[in-house]
Amino acid sequence: MDSQSGPPTGAPGRPVGEPERVTGAAGPVAVEAPKSLDSRGSSVGAVSTGTDLAIRTSKLSLWYGTFQALIDVDLEIERGLITSLIGPSGCGKTTLLRCVNRINERLGYVRTTGSIEVLGSDIYGPDVELIQVRKQVGMVFQRPNPLPLSIRDNVLYGLRIHDPSTRRMSRAELDDVVERALSRVLLWDAVKDRLNRQATSLSLEEQQKLCIARLLPVQPAVLLMDEPASALDPKGTEAVEELIWELRGDYTILIVTHNMAQARRASEECVFMLLGRVIEHGETGEMFVAPKQKQTADYIEGRYG
Predict the structure, then answer these.
(1) How many folded domains does the chain comprise?
(2) Domain encompassing residue 132
(3) What is the pLDDT of residue 225?
(4) Cα–Cα–Cα angle for 248, 289, 94, rounded to 5 degrees
(5) What residues of the chain score a pLDDT lower than 50?
(6) What is the pLDDT of residue 66?
(7) Residue 15: inside a domain, yes or no?
(8) What pLDDT does 25 receive?
(9) Which residues pair with 223 in a beta bridge?
């Protein structure tokens, strides 16, 4: 998890009018995957605010026990764009990323206040099922985590969980799903003749592409990427960056990176965080050339971090 210096002596109370959310082990969730995040039948594609946002956080704060890792984070992420999160280690980047698909709540000592909306739906709302959040918001981790299954079964794994109708699909239909997903991540030509081989036999670059391909059949709206190229060599990093750019537009991509050159190459908007707060958010090229905040300039120029 992210850590920061200078934790408060205790976790402050929640904002006025904001119910406290104590996030721990997830309760029972339905296996079947309806179209919306909640059980009331509203479409997750219909943004209630009338704006073209994929993610909106409002006064989002998070504590690990008594340590506050996020402080009143207000952030708006546009649909279809690649947005990078940058900042020194411990600034809250990964914590924020993990809030968006509720991974943090696996830790029983985590507490959050504020709100997070994905495509207009409050993902912490009482009628929202966790499995629906995970379907709409996919996650790619620092190190590839292919399942100990065949390449083919890795691609189909999420679809089989979220869509029971796959039991009635023919072999040819499932093969088409596999081909389309692997083609989209630029991996089909490399593995089409060895789909039944163990996914763990692939190179790290290929494994990371496969992990992204595994998300696509369930059609998520948002892809979260936590330093997806940090374990790769320069050639693999270039390949993953090319893939991220290839997915642009069809998916909203939020990527954490410590690599300033990567943030500049591979994102359209950039968010700079420091000590749990969002300091600056703007167009990537503009931020790197003419940052508006001194803290941003100092970090980009390597004065700390």
Answers:
(1) 1
(2) 47-300
(3) 95
(4) 50
(5) 1-50
(6) 94
(7) no
(8) 35
(9) 138, 253
In CATH, what number is assigned to the domain containing residue 147? 3.40.50.300
158 domain-assigned: yes
For CA atoms 286, 287, 288, 294, the dihedral sign is positive
258 occurs within a structural domain: yes
- For the entire predicted model, the pTM comes to 0.80
Q: In sequence order, what DSSP letters do the residues of the chain get, joined into one string?
A: ----SS--SSPPPPPTT---EEE-S-----SS--SSSBTT---TTS-TTSS-EEEEEEEEEEEETTEEEEEEEEEEEETT-EEEEE-STTSSHHHHHHHTTTGGGGSTTEEEEEEEEETTEETTSTTB-HHHHHHHEEEE-SS----SSBHHHHHHHHHHHH-GGGGGS-HHHHHHHHHHHHHHTT-HHHHTT-TTSBGGGS-HHHHHHHHHHHHGGG--SEEEEESTTTTS-HHHHHHHHHHHHHHBTTBEEEEE-S-HHHHHHH-SEEEEEETTEEEEEEEHHHHHHS-SSHHHHHHHTTS--
Question: Which tokens go with 297?
Answer: 């300039």
In a domain, 102, yes or no: yes
The residue assigned the tokens 């359209």 is: 268
